[in-house]
Amino acid sequence: MRLLTTIGKYFVLMSSVFAKPVKLRIFIKRVLEEVEQIGMDSIWIVSIVSIFMGAVLTLQVAINFEAPYIPRYLIGLSARDTMILEFSSTIICLILAGKVGSNIASEIGTMRITEQIDALEIMGINSANYLILPKITAAIISFPVLNLLSIILGIAGGYLVSAATGVVSVYDYIYGLNYLFVPFYVTYSLIKICVFSVIITSVSSFHGYYTFGGALEVGKSSTRAVVYSIILILLFNLILTQLLLT
Known about the structure:
By secondary structure, the protein is mainly alpha-helical.
């Protein structure tokens, strides 16, 4: 019963969130601010993680592909498909759920307990629409860019480790990157990360919006937001993979 109540509250909140903004100019300004906070501030962690994971992935695949009958170019192919299909969408979003999600829940939760949201509502402003919709829009805009950046840097990390260590020749690695490339895999990855961006921002905003109490409750809301976002990302990863790739 508690779960159904929570789900109901979530969809009621979302119905207020996706109302038409009263002033488009203010909405665009808020979206640009959120793009900087959600997207631009996440570039560094996405870049570092992607480069190292691409390098480690290439090393691990090369070490396990020691059999002489296995073509060496499959190392590049494996690194490419792993980065596109899973790492640069799902794993990156699990990381962003911790960074972005906790920040959103803490920000909105603090506004709730300091009565800033109540003040917005007293002024006749749709607080859910004003606070949450720009975050969701900004995430839908910035997360796919981070996804493409992660794919490129992950593949570049594999190239660097192949050139530096010689576990696979640069020629074989590049040949594997081009071998049997399926463009739809990139589309699939972008679709997933767009869905995950909505999950992270909306779930985190929901837990922050319904925070009541003091500073301790803000911390608890932030933790719940991250946990539930991760669970939903994994669940929808399974659903989207079943729908789009089978």
